[in-house]
Amino acid sequence: MSRTLLCCVAVFAMAIRVDRAPAEVVVVPAGHGVSEDIEITQLAIGDSAPEFELFGVDFRYHSLEMYEGREAVVVAFVCNHCPVSVDYQDTLVALANKYQKQGVQFLAINPNPADKVAKDSFPRMIERAKEKEFPYPYLYDETQKTARAYGPERTPHVFVFGPERKLVYKGSIDNGHQPPFFLADALDAVLEGGKIETPVMREGMDEHRIFGCTVKYLTEAERNKKGLK
Q1: Which fold has domain 21-226?
Q2: Residue 114 and residue 64: Cα distance in Å, rounded?
Q3: How far is CA 194 from each of CA 60, 174, 199, 201, 228, rounded to the nearest angstrom?
Q4: pLDDT tens digits, 171-192
Q5: Is the pLDDT confidence value at 22 over 80?
Q6: Which backbone phi and psi does 219 adopt, to 5 degrees?
Q7: Looking only at Cα atoms, what is the longest distance across the chain?
Q8: Whole-prediction pTM value?
Q9: How far apart are CA 45 and CA 176, in angstroms?
Q10: How far is CA 167 from CA 48, 87, 220, in A?
Q11: Above 90 in pLDDT, residue 74?
């Protein structure tokens, strides 16, 4: 084999290693507002952050490219009604107040349609953001286009992207307000250039299980009725 061909093979192999992780198929189970089992694709570690443009409670549109200079971006799928998501509001605010000073941008996204859960309507989002003084944009994913691009299973469900906007952590904020503090540990690792010990938390992973209320995904029939693709 020629030296040129060997070099090409080496470069190709390196590219495979960089982009090695395909999207993962997950199933959000029926119940509690989800009409049937919903199969979605979820970003895998190493995937690029999908772009989006969503309207926020500050009456502005927000996109990922607005925060391209940040050291890391945390995309947190949350909502108003879920007791677990509500329980973690103060924790998420505290983490944002700490890490946004270090160049990390937090973005909170509500993926639940108001006709599924009235408490998750945009006016109620405005009220909650004012009440809790969210230090980050609170965005409404009314069409669920962004949620389907990222693949959150529960609320809260956080996705952390490093400087190159590659996914480095996905899962819960912490272990029920106890260590391990997964999100904080992941952000410390990104900022210090270290290793993330637990990069993935998924449904059915025992101690590394994602927990919270299911994202209220629309069925295909419901999406068709709304004219959503």
Answers
A1: Glutaredoxin (3.40.30)
A2: 24
A3: 35, 19, 12, 19, 41
A4: 999 999 999 899 999 999 999 9
A5: no
A6: -75, 170
A7: 67
A8: 0.88
A9: 23
A10: 6, 25, 28
A11: yes
